[in-house]
Amino acid sequence: MNEPVLPPIGMLAELTHRCPLQCAYCSNPVELLKANREMDTAGWLSLFEQAADLGVLQVHLSGGEPTLRSDLVDLVACLARRGVYTNLITAGVGIAEGRIEALAAAGLDHIQLSFQGAFAATTEKIGNSLGAHQKKLETARRVRAAGLPLTINAPIHRHNMEEVPDFIDLALGLGAERLEIANVQYAGWALLNREALMPEREAVERQVQIVEEAQERLRGIMTIDFVTPDYFAIYPKPCMGGWARDAFMVAPDGTVLPCHAAATIKSLHFERFGDWSLSRIWHESAAFNAFRGTSWMQEPCRSCERQEIDWGGCRCQAMAIAGDAAATDPACVLSPLHARMGALINEAIRTKAADTTSGAFTYRRIGKVAEPTV
Amino acid sequence: MTHTTRVRAVVSLQSRPILKSHARLQYDNVREAWALLSPERVFWPNEVSLDILRLCDGRHSVAQMIALLADQYAADEAEIAPDVTGFLQEWSDKFLVTL
Description:
The structure holds two protein chains of two kinds.
Chain A: E1 10-14, H1 41-54, E2 58-62, H2 72-81, E3 85-90, H3 99-106, E4 110-114, H4 120-127, H5 132-145, E5 150-156, H6 164-173, E6 178-183, H7 188-192, H8 194-197, H9 201-217, E7 223-227, E8 247-250, E9 256-257, H10 278-284, H11 286-290, H12 307-310, H13 315-322, H14 338-354
Helix pairs in contact in A: 1-2, 2-3
Chain B: E1 18-19, E2 24-28, E3 33-37, E4 42-43, H1 47-54, H2 62-72, H3 77-93, E5 97-98
Antiparallel strand pairs in B: 1-5, 2-3, 3-4
Helix pairs in contact in B: 2-3
């Protein structure tokens, strides 16, 4: 590790694991934390002050459902006072009257609102929540009325991939500046539900065409950001922009991690804010330094000219598929295990064909569910 | 189809560009550089981009911006005009500037 450690730019704050929805692909860990494990207001405020001092410019306030934190307005006000850009990532279900306006007044910069389907039936089925779609539409209207910029986030998988054109129309109709078509990443609950969520290859190819055509057609009208599905990829994504390179996340109890799923790498220990300062964690945590830069890389990454483009891809996916967090992300065509990704797609499709009842989800719930085995 | 009501803004000399409310230009004391903050990305504009962005205040027309920048850089208006309008169109398409 000889590369200089630069200050972090972005921080994802998972304020709570509580959520009114039960999406089967949630990026939260399978072992969810109950409310009594959440860091208190003073803890979050202190963390945000230290984050601003350290150089963090953007905080994504997420969860679970972040609006379930009764102190959210105070947290936003603290970040706004420090000039930190705030993005609220919400499911938009059950936000009390006046709350969005209060957040805007406190200095909130942007809202990202998720839709599980482009139609009510899909949204309700995926989130396992009756009436959710209608509430989300109402939230979008309130966001616009409060003068806040809006991104619609659509997590995509087998059960809603055919609705991509409808998601585009929905986002346009709601006046969103941005739409994220984000194919589900198989970590956390999505890994547990991988077989039920895995799309077919032809559907993925159709989706790519539809999105690319819409990006061209809607240039200057609405931005469409496309998160492509790793299992169908040739090269991996630069996950988190590189491990501990310019971003990190914080779990509800204050544990600081390089990414959502990092706790699945059992050989690493992650420090909690409060036990250590944020600056010390960022610079000295053994877990943060484990995969920083390029010197930890094995072949084929070690000699690859793309090593500073994708930074070896996703460490958690390497752990899940290759059984080695320091391996090349198997999403990469150069990985000796790349064929395993294709085999997992085929296996999911075969299972679906053989069993018409498959496709049922293990819905996200707080409580004991075994970690998936691969 | 709802999107027929939304059209792409195209830059003209009469446009009076202004930074979008979700885009914020601010000085970063830690890195000692100007940053443009937007929902998912942070941009680090160079000196020329900064001079253009600072004029995106909703008061200056593109024609006035070109005149001011030509003066500032001791350049021909005709020479820099395509660069300025090209930049503004690109930043409008990125949803960072309203034309």
